[in-house]
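User: Modeling request: complex.
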Amino acid sequence: AQSVTQLGSHVSVSEGALVLLRCNYSSSVPPYLFWYVQYPNQGLQLLLKYTTGATLVKGINGFEAEFKKSETSFHLTKPSAHMSDAAEYFCAVSGGGNEKLTFGTGTRLTIIP
Amino acid sequence: DARVTQTPRHKVTEMGQEVTMRCQPILGHNTVFWYRQTMMQGLELLAYFRNRAPLDDSGMPKDRFSAEMPDATLATLKIQPSEPRDSAVYFCASGPGRRAGSGNTIYFGEGSWLTVV
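Assistant: Request completed. Predicted assembly structure:
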């Protein structure tokens, strides 16, 4: 069984400030980890993913995430927030021989001008 | 630009009516998913197909929901009869299915926004 916990359903940061969205996972098999972004009234778009290899992964729009097995975490960061980053962010896990994604409950990111 | 296409984008229907949502996966993808998104439950997996065969529909209420893939280019999700609690956004997604379980990227459609009154 797999699960994802996203700490903080709402996060607000000032424009230009560091963005940190937290994700912890539980998995009985080696996990594949994903971050998706959802803009209002739209579908989900992949930001980045970790499969194997380098534990620091870079994604689109300046985001990156680091897989830490010892902490069962996959936190999402961006050094400097932009107004266009305002959206909902979902962490997800898959693994164990199938592709289905198990999602966290999401974090809504608000950018303060 | 390959994308997952869903129809209808928006649907308002009366309780008791049948609702059919359609999805065209990305050409060449052989895994298809149906997810439901609500404020209360978040994103829930309803059904998962590989090569048109259902692999997992444990998240789908069997009494009123059904999911099929008549061919490789069409997936359908049907609700009969619909109820107000079915109001949600229904997302279809597809994946390449290469080396299943290897962290393939799953691509989502724009969603079908269903309101049952």
